[in-house]
Amino acid sequence: MAEITNELMYELLKRVHGDISDIRLGQRELKAEMNAMRGIMISMQQDIQNIHTTLARHEVRLDRIENRLELRELQEAQARFETHP
């Protein structure tokens, strides 16, 4: 069995320190990627909300148009009956 010396312990500690540094760097990269994904998701959520708002506005306009068409059809139908003596 190899003898455990201070030099061997020092080399092992340097290797562990290097591994921990690599893990920290990877963790920072993952945090940056997660923040970017979070920003993209928020942007997509806002886009979807804007689409819903636009669709709701169009729905209101279509309802008003349909109402006008129904009123016009009613007037035309009444006019046909009123013009005939």
Considering the chains and any ligands shown, give keywords for the structure:
rod-shaped; 85 residues; single chain
Q: Tell me the major beta sheet.
A: none
Question: What is the oligomeric state here?
Answer: single chain
The general outline is rod-shaped
Binned, the helix content reads over 70%
Low-confidence stretches at least 5 residues in length (pLDDT < 50)? none
Note the run of SSEs as H and E.
H
Distance between the termini: 122 Å
Q: Write down how many β-strands occur, each being a DSSP E stretch of 2 or more residues.
A: 0
Strand content: under 5%
Structural class: mainly alpha
Radius of gyration: 36 Å
Q: What average pLDDT do the residues reach?
A: 92
Explain this structure:
It contains one helix and no strands. With about 80 residues, it is mainly alpha-helical. The longest helix is centred in the middle third of the chain and has 78 residues, at about 5-85. The relative contact order is 0.04.
Entry summary:
With 85 residues, the protein is mostly helical. The chain is 92% helix and 0% strand.
Topology readout:
Layout: H1 6-83
